[in-house]
Write a structure and sequence with these properties.
two-stranded antiparallel ribbon; four-stranded parallel β-sheet; 14% strand; 8 helices; TIM Barrel; alpha/beta; 43% helix; 8 strands
Amino acid sequence: MAGSGSWPHLDALPADPGQTAAQVEQRYSELVSEVRGAVSIPLAVKLSHFFTAIPNLARQLDVAGANGLVFFNRFYQPDFDIEALEVVPNLVLSNSNELLLRLHWVGIVYGQVKADLAVTGGVHTAGDVLKSMMAGARTAMMTSALLRNGLGHVRVVLDDMMRWMEEHEYDSIRQMQGCMSHRSSANPAAFERGNYMKVLSSYVLR
């Protein structure tokens, strides 16, 4: 677990083939429980999307005392310098396409845990923030967008959000929260399959 303040994240990638997924998740739950017992401030845990049963892990961490769950940590992948035979850093800023994975899992976990949910990675526009809220997030974090556009971009996003909400007659963020989540679907199984088929049929040959 690494991080600063009350926002630690789980970033140790298991490399031991003898270590099972259940053992990894149990270790993380125990670690969160220990931190929860040592501090009184709100505790949020930043997750990786590599887990095999994300809703179950979310519930374990919720029970362990996490007040918030952040979807998902962006692992920075180092590159190879084949001339120097060295591993070199390779920082690539996010884009809005990365948001889709976050929306999917926040939408599934929403309503199944007491912890607040947050989205990080791929949040660049007012639309990205609104989508995050509709999936069920309480917080949408943007870093790459601010590095690319400057701090003034926050005002642009807020103004665009207010404009959209007025045009669509939303009085508050809470009014839309979770409206596009898995829980809000009348038939979740059909909803999942329908989305899959829509994605396949949306591809157009050029």
